[in-house]
Amino acid sequence: MKTRAADLPKLLESVEDQFVELWNNMGTLWGISPTMARIHGLLYISGSALSMDDIMARLAISRGNVSMNLSKLVEWGLVRRVHKKADRKEYYESLADVWEMFTLVANQRKRREIDPILTTLRRCRDELTPEAIGGQAMKEPARTRFQRVDDLLKLLTLLDSLSQRFFESHKGLREAVEMLTSED
Amino acid sequence: MKTRAADLPKLLESVEDQFVELWNNMGTLWGISPTMARIHGLLYISGSALSMDDIMARLAISRGNVSMNLSKLVEWGLVRRVHKKADRKEYYESLADVWEMFTLVANQRKRREIDPILTTLRRCRDELTPEAIGGQAMKEPARTRFQRVDDLLKLLTLLDSLSQRFFESHKGLREAVEMLTSED
DNA sequence: ATATACTTTCAATTGTTCCTGAAAGGAATA
DNA sequence: TATTCCTTTCAGGAACAATTGAAAGTATAT
Prior knowledge:
The structure is a homodimer.
Chain A: H1 8-29, H2 34-46, E1 50-51, H3 52-59, H4 63-76, E2 79-83, E3 90-94, H5 98-126, H6 130-133, H7 142-167, H8 170-182
Antiparallel strand pairs in A: 1-3, 2-3
Chain A binds a DNA duplex (30 and 30 nucleotides) through α4.
């Protein structure tokens, strides 16, 4: 059942709304605040540069809120400012490349959040080695603690190397595709 | 500088505290509530079955809170109840296998959160195809919208297949290790 | 220099999520 | 059955996060 031409704007609006909502959920998953995600969703799906007023009107949120969240998006590198000649307003535009967006966020979160965790974990392990506590290290209860920390550290270190390779360029994605298509 | 035997309990306690705090941060990253993460951290690092009272005392949180969060942990499958004979109390014990814990959480979150997103995304795409809106599909502004949704869907579908393979068994991990060690 | 057009900041408000403690619920023992 | 010991539930409160709107800030045009 085809949509008549007159209904197209309504349909597009509805699809955009669905997408913005979806992107909001996606954002929650990545630890991104709802409004930030919605704004980015709107910029991404619309594919054009929008002004603060456009966004305020479309998403029904206040000027201050839009301003703050746009700055954060620019900081993350997901959105960039665009100046139009003969217009004092600033416009904002999303990155278009999805993979680039993913790696951008993944790399920053890894650096800010995962790396410190790994550092702490290593310190925990080092405090439980024979070098640190002598013969006690081999006996309970220290032995179990050490074992658990070490197990975790091994896995996280591995995942870390993997993600490093996977996220650092388009190459990682290509390798993954090959792995997926070769066997199976 | 080795620790004297008398200081060992203090040291262990400190390491455990650091670990619990670390696991709390890790949990935030996975969208798991702080207390739930801390309880699980304690159970994991201690490597033994603890009672509600043990946990309340060690983490200084209320009985109700411990109870609720333990149920959720059991629900997730990260913790299991243990009955000790001649004791009415219930004890709780964490899974020991780190990889198993990861896959458990990853699979459940995928099912609950990612799959619905993919469904919505497909619906968005389908509403923008030529089948749905005719010739308009090839012209702006519908064309861009379709393109963007389709790009995203392609990548997410790929990541989905990848993670499926990666997380469904120990095999995924082994493959990844091979990939990492073979070339580079 | 002043006015205009637009953006940023931030204190106050609102909204959300988390935690507590006490009461109700269950299950084992006497 | 009554008692004891332990767990769960949940309404209210505390802590935290997000949002607004108006004042201050900045830049361009006149």
